[in-house]
Amino acid sequence: MRRNASHLSHTARWIYLTGMGSGNQRLSGCQRRLAGRNSTDCHLEWRADNRGLLTEDELEIAYGYSVKVMEHLVDFWYDKDMESINMWEHGRKTDNYRNKYRILGENLSLSMQMVNSYEHWVKAGYKEKSICGDYVEKLQKLPSHMYVPFAKGEYDRGLVIVRDGDHVWSLPFINGGQRMYDKDPYLPVPFQYQVLQGVPEYCHGQLIPQLWMEDGEVLMPVSYMSGIWTKEEDGAFTVGCHFDVLCRMGEGISVGGGKTADNLVDNSVAGNSEENQRPKRVEGITDEVSYEFYHGQIKRTDHFQVTEALGDRKIKKIRLVLLSFSEKPEVSGDQVTFANGILTGMTAEGVGDCHAFAALDDGSFGTPMGRLNTEVVWSREVAPQETEIETTWTIRYQV
């Protein structure tokens, strides 16, 4: 597809904006997918190869971030004991197509990306140049939030980026994603490396309300979103959307304590056809969703409405799950607080009381950056006469 210069310029700024944290503590990225190492390196090589689209200040920021990515390779991704890039051991996990059998290729490709990026910067006059002295100040002047639309029509697609101190949150409205739509890393949830992440190839249902039906199916608002809107008011940035249908989830939901729900209907993808891999629509329940971003906290609200199209089907219970790197949880009613970790607590309303569990060390809680530590589950029964259900959750984090 051909792109004009103005579109490329906009895309260039978006990519560099989404990948850079506002300080020195963490590398952040809009790519929350299943190989965190590859996502930071794609930022690295892209920035080096598209210098002509950036202003001088943007170029200084891009170079500084490239240096930090290279440092991150040495300090985090390279494992001295393995004498290799480590994307698979000590709690780290990728999706299946990038499993450890690709270890040789990953080491070679990453080395080539680093060399290519270095050569690009040398040609630009940056050989052995230090990061600019006001690097952090330049980052702090970047926009605090932005919404980048990818597609507008019957169903919308886009990406929200929100900056809060050293944090960069990415909230993707992917809206479909054949085969992967029901996996945690693709859910429309604000994620950030080493703060909130999804588990590759698993559906814990991270931070999305789950409607468990009496017939054994699980419905969630993850695809078929429309009318994405944004608002700025009283120090908060809000983004919302509408779901005219919910999505039937695929391979079952992991439940509290690491067990699986063996009484649920298995809607695993069968076959490789486009139709089989497409998200499954379920009519009869709509949802209005909004996210509110404040300093040090994020709030999500869902308003579910049962319509006649649901027929005789009934909602059995509603459930919510939080997976966190934070540790030492204390629960009280519908609230959990953590003694250790960047995420300090979460409160959820409309989904019952919560229970906390230590995450199992069996691969079901691994992320590209390491194993999650805690699973918190809220759950309550839904009465037959409930045709409207409103839920909210608020997470709090250190800034």
What class, by secondary structure content? alpha+beta
- Approximately how much beta-strand content do the residues carry? 25-35%
Mean model confidence by pLDDT? 83
What is the makeup of the main sheet? 8 strands, antiparallel
What Rg do the Cα atoms give?
A: 21 Å
Overview of the structural elements:
There is one protein chain. This protein has six helices and 22 strands. With 399 residues, it is α+β, with helices and mostly antiparallel strands. The strands form five sheets. The chain has an eight-stranded antiparallel β-sheet, with no helix packed on it. The radius of gyration is 21 Å and the shape is globular.
Could you give a short description of this structure?
By secondary structure, the protein is of the alpha+beta class. The chain has helices spanning 5-19, 36-49, 56-77, 103-123, 135-140, 274-277, and strands at residues 78-79, 84-85, 145-151, 157-164, 167-173, 210-213, 218-220, 225-233, 236-243, 246-248, 280-282, 285-294, 297-306, 315-324, 327-332, 335-340, 343-349, 354-358, 366-367, 370-371, 374-381, 388-397. The protein has an eight-stranded antiparallel beta sheet with strand order 8-9-12-13-22-17-16-15, with no helix packed on it. The chain has a seven-stranded antiparallel beta sheet with strand order 11-10-7-6-14-21-18, with no helix packed on it. A three-stranded antiparallel beta sheet has the order 3-4-5, with helices on one face.
